Amino acid sequence: MIHLLVVDDEKEVGTFLSRLFSMKGYHVQVVNSGKEFHQIDFNQQRFDAAMIDLKLPDCDGLSLLQYLKQKQPLCKALIMTGYSTVKTAVEAMKLGASDYMEKPFVDIEVLEKQLDNLLNENDDLNQHFIHNLAKESGLIVGESLLIKELIEMAFKVAQKSVNVLIEGETGSGKEVLSRFIHSASPRSHEPFIGINCGAISESLLESELFGHEKGAFTGATQQRKGFFEIAGNGTLFLDEIADASPAIQVKLLRVLETREFMRVGSSGTLRTNARLVAASNENLQQAVEKNKFREDLFYRLNVVTLDIPALRNRKEDIPLLVRHLVERTGQADISFSNEAIEKLQQYDWPGNIRELSNVIMRTLTLADHKQEISANDILLSTNQVIPIKKDPPNANQSTENHLEEWRKQLVADFNEKDELMLEEILKEIKQLESTIGKELVMQALQKTYGNRNEAAKRLQISMRKLRYILNEKNQT
């Protein structure tokens, strides 16, 4: 028999829920206050599920939830919120609640189904499903407790039609997390549209988001739908939202408040049901305090905030991330030695996963078809790529200045000593030429996502020359 605990100060609600679930064969216990709740002997009475109201006369439901999860961790908790906000209900989910239900109960069948789903949920199968879905989205769970908790929370939030704000450093994977949220949501079969607010001018961004009418501005030769319209019932991801201009912020606020917008050059109103997921590498709360971001827009976006941990705070995940990145290049037969992995874990990764991805691609590109990557094969920064033995006075200078300083040093040394090992220097210059060539090819491959034809076109060389530079001399 299912044992259900109901905690609600409204006796009518408690009586209704008791009758409803007793008819389903549950054993239901109702308490109307925090005092009655703490009179329960949780060491003797086991509960399969609990429905807890967040607003009680003598305490708040969050404290009761925490106490319950300490005493009975396996008890599924459904939070009921009538007076509190959705944001508080989401906070309850972070503390261990499985789900929440808004009061008053509009659809009893939905409430029954929600509780039944929690009770029938297999935690192991659910975890397996979440991890597989994350991997399909390009999100690697790994061993870090921080990332595991983040993904579990993102999965719960994905089921709700609430705005989500993702914060994290550049390169930490904010767009990947947003795609996971979309894939885990009921909107997964609808469009996912992403746009970087900092990469587009204000006038163009307005047109991209809201669309425009023919003749609305110079070059508007035909009507065009905006991303809010194209997304429809799907998900719209706004990256670097902090870079949006004040005018764009005002228009975004109106959409979030009314679900309505107008195309540029039109007076007609359109509606959108798109879910908004915003991201920023800047702390928006601090941006509000500095008057760089609208406070009202921040609160509209900040229903749920997910903070992605930096890679330096989850270094235990690096081996799995490396394996994933290697497999993504189609070179699954290549492995990294223990020393190579250790070298990667000792680095702080200011560019996060994006930098790790670039390092793996650069290493594989320059590894000359090795089956095992050693620590010496890994080039953590471009400074390691240029093997100039005599450092110039200013290490922050460009490569061109770097080489010019080196040339001046060689000439000065020759004038001072009257002798020089020219053969060794020419040999080193030849090696330098080869290394720089590989580095530039590698950068072109990064920019073209591994498309060699496009990389060769950008470098204005033939495919044969590109392969030669990569020491693939036997390929035609």
TrEMBL record:
Q: Which domain of life is it from?
A: Bacteria
SMART domains, alphabetically?
Answer: AAA, REC
The UniProt entry, under InterPro entries, shows:
AAA+_ATPase (IPR003593), AAA_lid_NorR (IPR058031), CheY-like_superfamily (IPR011006), HTH_Fis (IPR002197), P-loop_NTPase (IPR027417), Sig_transdc_resp-reg_receiver (IPR001789), Sigma_54_int (IPR002078), Sigma_54_int_dom_ATP-bd_1 (IPR025662)
Which residues does the UniProt record annotate as the domain Response regulatory?
A: 3-118
PROSITE patterns attached to this UniProt entry: RESPONSE_REGULATORY (PS50110), SIGMA54_INTERACT_1 (PS00675), SIGMA54_INTERACT_3 (PS00688), SIGMA54_INTERACT_4 (PS50045)
User: What keyword terms does UniProt attach to this protein?
Assistant: ATP-binding, Nucleotide-binding, Phosphoprotein, Transcription, Transcription regulation
One Pfam family it belongs to:
Sigma54_activat
Q: Where are the transmembrane segments?
A: none
Which residue numbers delimit the Sigma-54 factor interaction domain? 140-365
Q: Give the modified residues of type 4-aspartylphosphate.
A: 53
Name of the molecule in the record? Sigma-54-dependent Fis family transcriptional regulator
**Taxonomic path:** Bacteria, Bacillati, Bacillota, Bacilli, Bacillales
